[in-house]
Amino acid sequence: MKLSQGLLFWQEVGEGIPIVFLHGAWHDSSQWVGVMKLLSQHFHCFAPDLLGFGESENPNIHHSIDLQVECLRELLQALKLEKVYLVGNSLGGWIAASYTLKYPEEVYGLVLLAPEGVRVEGEEKFWQKRQRLFNYSQFMVKLLRLLSPVLKLFGWNEKITEDLQLRKTLLEYPTACNLLFNRQQAEIKAELLDNYLGKISVPTLILQGGKDIKNNIDKSNIYARFIPQSNLKIIAHVGDILPDTCSSLVAEDIQDFVKENWL
Length: 263
Description:
By secondary structure, the chain is of the alpha/beta class. It has helices at residues 33-39, 65-78, 91-102, 123-134, 138-146, 148-153, 157-172, 174-180, 185-191, 214-226, 242-245, 247-261; strands at 2-3, 6-7, 10-14, 17-22, 43-48, 84-89, 107-113, 204-209, 230-235. It comes from Richelia sinica FACHB-800.
């Protein structure tokens, strides 16, 4: 569909109560296919590619969380969805929570999976490393590869290989990089939700993998601590990317949450 900022693609299946799924930073809407198939008998499921991701257009504009919120709202209005449940993973969780803060009357409830959008200890170094890798010049990459035999002697080769693989992933998702760490820090900080979570007024379920990295677990705990009507569920045996690694459990939790909170 052509929106004011560009073409937006979405996947849709089922009928009934509308649920909108927002993908994570290093994914597109296909991340939710397995979950949506399981829920489609009971719910009307929508999963857009966020602007700048997947099949959606990547216009030459300055990306922000608020821009993603407004694109999502324009899509939902075009689809005549006046009120929905929002489900967001990682970056999608940040966007879903921001949408709910801005348009609370349009959201029945939230399901957030390892959501971004708050800062925890060690977060700055985490993103600074990714910013350096993302902005490496081709000369630097070629130099590291040329020096690979020498680096191997010092035991650094494995780490360099891992970093270059991470850089490859980052380059595949430039919009995610811009949203998460490659903008002015003051701008990113202004969109963080640390001081606003207490204003989220809808029922919220937070799903978190117990074997995920500490930063992500800490963020989920912050969301659960400050959102008034929230419940945190730790899925002990899994790590990150919950929609991919345990789609049946995620689908079951979403179904139970929606049925419990359906008005």
